[in-house]
Amino acid sequence: MSYEVELKAHVDDPITLKHDIEQQPGIGEVCCEEKDDIYYALAGQEPLFRLRAERFGPSFHELSGNVRFTRKYKSLKDGIEVNEEVEFLSSSDQAQQAHAFFLSLGYEVYIRKTKRGYSYDWVFDETLSPLHIELVEIASLGWFLEMEFVLETAERVPYARTRLLEVLSLLGVPQECIEERYYMHLLKDFS
Length: 191
Description:
Structural class: alpha+beta
Largest sheet: 8 strands, antiparallel, barrel
Low-confidence stretches: none
Strand content: over 45%
Mean pLDDT: 94
Number of helices: 4
Helix content: 10-25%
Distance between the termini: 33 Å
């Protein structure tokens, strides 16, 4: 199990922010990505897990991917998520069968989410895992900057939270733009 320390923030000018990200010293190559998520829940309850069809590549015309199954134990403090995750991957041709299997067990589709955008990895701090950055458009919600460190132990969580806020400032995104709600709740409110 790993610990994700992440934040997301609303973005008004994704073109300028993409340029600013790509100008950072040591930033990795841009990767184009598309992610289609289905969150599953028992009737009348909050979602328990997610099925994600994810595709990556050097351009939006050259994408390949897999299916990722994720269960998160979530917590949120001051707009920064700290999640414990259990997940595994499967080949992309398993998505439809997995979906049918979950429905047959009595789970319902809670919400669907589609992300499309760009991702980067950046060794911003040698004492932490590489910072994963995504600049993505969420269908129906607009553009967001997502940043996360994935940690093996909980001891480094406070330090990683501080570093996320430093990068946010470095990229010129005000802390007021941090979105504290989970995407699935934003989408539920929107629908």
